[in-house]
Amino acid sequence: ADRRPKTSAQLRTLIHQLHQHNLMLFVGSNTPHDTLLPNNLSLARQLMSEINHEPNRHDSPEKLFTLYLNESGLQRSQLIDRLMGYFQAQPLPPLLAEIPAFGWSDLFTTNQHTYLEQAYARQKRPFRVIISTEDYRQRQSGQTLLYKLHGALNERAHNLPIECLPLTEYDFEWRTIARLDWFWQQMQRKWQNGRSMLMLFATEEEVMTIRRRYKPEESKGVIWIAGAAFSHEEQEIYRNLGLRILPESELELLSTLKTFPL
What does each C-alpha distance from 118 to 88, 98, 172, 260 come to in angstroms? Predict the structure, then answer.
């Protein structure tokens, strides 16, 4: 007997797209309550204790990093070291370690940590990190392209121009905006050509940014969101905007997908 969990029509369509190697993945910077994923915001809040500042729960990591550098007198390079040390001190989160096994056609992320790169390397799956257009030109066939919208805290971090590794509010100037626009254009082109996308760990801001770029009437692909972290009102808004909401959490969704291997 088939012991796999019952699935909705939406989820069966998503699984079919995945098995056709036609599903992209977006990994956002949110941290749902049922996961423990290290992220920039967690470190930013920790750093506030060093300058005796109580952060507002709505403060972005970019705002807090700006405040930290202004108040501490430290340099940007020292903040990069703090970030790299913070992530390196923690093991690869099990949830992210499983990501490469699903065979995504492309992967986009706003996270600057290198857990996804570690996961692909650990599973010996070919991939290429895309931080600049030069990285894209040097891609090879058979590689999963890992688009790092906000750059990566890897061995190149200290040598990356600011627009390729924006950390503070000051860093999001015109060069950064122009660079990010190239990444959004890559997504749009793939949607128009029939690629669909699953969004995991997406913040409200990330969902709305992608929705502004996604035009259902011009796209053959669709966008699904793991929606458990959003309220019913938010889910209804996203549905009305042409996005498809899956009721499962990220953990539940990946667990179900594992029962339908490629």
Answer: 11, 11, 27, 24
User: What secondary structure letter does DSSP report for 159?
Assistant: G
Distance CA 68, CA 53 (A): 9
- Residue 2's Cβ-side half-sphere holds a number of Cα atoms within 13 Å equal to 6
* pLDDT score recorded for residue 249: 87
Q: In angstroms, rounded to a whole number, what is the distance separating the alpha carbons of residues 29 and 60?
A: 11
Distance of CA 124 to the CA centre of its chain: 21
What is the band of 34 on the pLDDT scale with cuts at 50, 70, 90? low
- Nearest one of 197, 189, 168 to 27, comparing CA atoms: 197
Contact 131, 152 (CB under 8 A): yes
The secondary structure element, H or E, covering residue 130 is strand 127-130
Q: Is the pTM of this model over 0.85?
A: yes
* Other C-beta atoms lying within 10 Å of the C-beta of residue 196: 23
Token pair of 139 as six digits: 């891609």
Question: Degrees (nearest 5) of the Cα angle 183, 116, 42?
Answer: 90
On average, the pLDDT of the chain sits at: 91
